[in-house]
Amino acid sequence: MKKLVNKVALITGASSGIGKAVAERFVKEGAKVVIADRDYEKACKFASSLRDNQYHAEAVEFEAQDLHSAAKIVDKSIEFFGSIDCLVNNVGGSNLSKDKNVEELDIKYFDEVLHVNLRSMIATAQAALPYMKSSRQGTIVNVASIGGMLGDFRGTLYGISKAGVINLTRYIATQYGQYGIRCNGVAPGLVLTPAAINNLSASEREIFLKYNTLPYAGSPEDIAGIITFLASEDARYLSGQTIIADGGMSCHNPTVKDISE
Q1: How do residues 31-51 score in pLDDT, each as one tens digit?
Q2: pLDDT at 261
Q3: Closest-CA residue to 94 (of 108, 113, 119)
Q4: pTM (two decimals)
Q5: Cα 208 from chain centroid?
Q6: What span, in angstroms and rounded, lies between the C-alpha atoms of 164 and 131?
Q7: Which residue out of 40, 55, 109, 158 is catalytically annotated?
Q8: What architecture does CATH give domain 8-251?
Q9: Integer distance in angstroms from the first to the last C-alpha of the chain?
């Protein structure tokens, strides 16, 4: 049985990577999807390809740093499909040439990272929540990162912003559960998105695998499966939680691999 029949889902950053995999999975589960992305041309082509396969999909332009853009994409979702049942806050990222260790990072980059990764999620939630409250149901899924839970040698601002996403998830769940609205998150480890493949060498990816308990890296489809679960009635008693999906990297003492060999 399909899990999201006739549900309307707005997915940000949905023209590639995890967001694209979520959209593809959602339509197969019966949802109508709105693909929000700053690359509007790419989003339109993706939506068109889904419609060619008899799925319901529309594209909207979304600029994560623009607060007005958040309200616009929610309004367009209502215009396209008449409601909004699920919001997937997936957009995010960081430029690691600026986002280094605390001593060396570009502090002027702070606002941009926090706006894209955290403020944009607050803004889209603010826009969607009134509609969800009026229908007394809805799901919000925030894509965080294992970087929001663990320290690293770089990506300081990214990690700080994703820690904020994890706590934002708890606050939304706490404040809006009374309206039947659930909010959960997922914190991926290494996922072989185009961005990860382009930014990590093969040897660097092997280092991640060394410290996973599973013998493989994640795919966008792996994360899409978790998000589909969180958006569905299968997770109706789950709220305020962030599921770690990192291949087991953070579940164990990191010396285990070296000592046991």
Answers
A1: 999 999 999 999 999 999 999
A2: 64
A3: 113
A4: 0.96
A5: 21
A6: 24
A7: 158
A8: 3-Layer(aba) Sandwich (3.40)
A9: 45
For strands 32-37 and 8-12, give the pairing: parallel
Backbone angles phi, psi at 190, to 5 degrees: -65, 120
In the beta sheet, which residues pair with residue 59?
35
Per DSSP (E only), the strands in 76-223 are: 86-89, 138-143, 181-188
Q: What are phi and psi of 12, to 5 degrees?
A: -90, 150
Q: Which helix (H) or strand (E) holds 227?
A: helix 220-231
pLDDT of residue 260: 72
| CB contact set of 203 (below 8 Å; sequence gap of 6+) | none
Q: What is the pLDDT of residue 189?
A: 95
Structure tokens at 73: 């994409």
The pair of three-digit structure tokens given for residue 46, joined into one six-digit string: 């993706």
Residue 211 designated active-site: no
Pair 226, 192: CB distance under 8 Å? no
CB 252 within 8 A of CB 211: no
Looking up tokens 């990506």, which residue turns up? Answer: 155
- Provide the pLDDT for residue 202: 86
Q: What are the b/e assignments for 214-244, b being 16+ CB within 10 Å?
A: eeebbebebbbebbbbbbbeebeeebebbbb
Instruction: List CB contacts of 26: < 8 A, sequence separation 6 or more.
Output: 4, 7, 9, 11, 33, 86, 228, 231
Domain spans of the chain, in order of start: 8-251
